[in-house]
């Protein structure tokens, strides 16, 4: 599988365009792709060529399937759709979340963010330290759980911490919002777990856990007959 990834990268490599000037924020724009400045440690220039890898395997080895039908099914069950706890697993939202796992995930997230927020190492978009009222939601306890499945109706930010806004390292680097845990896309299914005292909603998607604004645009609750 690593060989296939390398071959695809080798075949699709192209030089990146130069930056075209500042964007609407005034910051320089970055190219979408750019060649590495140097070889990776322990590699040679020859290993960056397709010919090197093709000569290491016979034609029959190159044509051999990476996974058979049973292995593909096992892969799908283990990674593609499961209620498992591995970081790379998509979550099956039709399976109820384990409250102990949720509590542990929230506790870990808060313990990571709150000290940085309190010390002013993470600041808002204007460079200001969060006020006590804004930090009040950073608690390790879960809100009262009342799970429901709904559908996202417009692009919606999923926040890593219980604050409805961006958080940046100080001094601000606007390209890196430390409170961004992904953007939920229209028609994406999401599970609302419970509402905080500050009005944010703890939620999980197939790939992440975080907080939504209380006024996020969502569908009505999905009927149980349609879940599965």
The biggest beta sheet, please? 4 strands, antiparallel
Terminal-residue CA separation? 31 Å
> Average pLDDT, to the nearest integer?
83
- Helical/strand content category: alpha+beta
Query: Rough shape?
Result: globular
Beta content: 5-15%
Please state the CA-atom Rg, rounded to the nearest Å. 22 Å
Give the number of DSSP strands: 8
Q: What percentage of residues falls in helices of 4 or more residues?
A: 25-40%
Question: Key features?
Answer:
single chain, 228 residues, alpha+beta, four-stranded antiparallel beta sheet, two-stranded antiparallel ribbon, 6 helices, 8 strands, disordered N terminus
